[in-house]
Amino acid sequence: MTKANSRESEYPIDPMFLERWSPRAFTGETIEETQLLTLLDAAHWAPSSSNMQPWRFLYALKGSEHWEEFVSLLVESNQEWAKNASALIFVVSRSFNGPRSEGRSSYTHSFDAGTAWGHLAMQACISGFYAHGMGGIKHEEIKEKLGVPEGYRVEAGIAVGRIADKSILSERYREREFPSQRKPLSEVVFNGHFIGND
């Protein structure tokens, strides 16, 4: 067992997996573009089906010409806290293999993009930043306003920044600002056949 960050694993994993979590309280300080690109570089080394690398990342740095537009593409409840991040990223995945004209769909594009996001989140933690993934984004508006072509799926948003004291958050978020626990491993891992039904 490993203990870190008020969490405890059932098996001896590296503590960095327990240290990583998704805060909402960010300092709002700027991040150098090279620092953000370091996180994105880690993401792009993720494994992918046949090395297709279907992930694409669109980003805006706080204070840049694109910042307000990126904030506006989050749902309002996420805008409330994510406006204090240092960078916002939208993850997009390519839903086809090879040239689009061949019409071959990729079954694992979302799976692969999720793996890349996981690499980004871990590199952020290693680098002294935190990354908070968000499903609460305006998917169709992102496609339209940011020029995402047909055949690509807008997957999620990510807020990146340095952690701040939770007192800067509204009360509803302050109460939830802590590293969440996980279900017991036995509820999500099965030897042989699927067991249980949520």
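the 2nd protein, sequnce then structure:
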Amino acid sequence: MGATLALGAWQLDRGRQREALHAAIAQRALLPPLGSAALPGGDPAADLMHRPVVVRGTWAAQHTVFLDNRQMNGRQGFYVVTPLLLEGGRRAVLVERGWAPRNFERREQLPPVASPPGLVEIRGRIAPLPAKLYEFSGAVSGPIRQNLDLGRFAAETGLPLLAVAVRQTGDGAADGLLRQWPEPASGAGKNYGYAFQWWALAAVTAILYVWFQFIAPRRKAPPA
């Protein structure tokens, strides 16, 4: 009982921590946007993630990657990722530009994505690098890929890529993309569910203990 009660309390604390982190992320999204200079060159600081950002640069459209098996609004398709050469030319950042549908009859056909030449201004949020999905033997080169490895991609393109991405926001109709990104969930509900299960197990253990130690022996005892 002591172990299950302690595990339930631990899961409750984990849920509260997740809720606090989720609240901090939501608060960061309301802060004024940062500029390109705020993008970290090394490992990103936790307090920068999900901050609004405005960056200026030129698209390296020839290195656009279409990450396969990504969903938006319940539909399967691509996440479109293009490196942006930041103004000044010494750094580049991966921009998660949005979602595009896939042609399931002609699977090698790429959806049209507009990448205007010249200097562009991108509004978005500082984000982790694109999440990796499980793959058996996915392509590690070419425009269609299952995952994107930052070190390998930087070596392949010769671009000085930063260790974070920019998730572009705003209307993507002009680019032929959807940008209805899912909001990050806290995940606290799962922890609270686990806490309830542990405490329910503790309650069952207590009931069984009382039954077998006190009630059952008295029921079996011969009458005086």
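Strands lie at 52-59, 65-72, 75-86, 92-101, 120-127, 144-145, 161-168. The longest strand covers residues 75-86.
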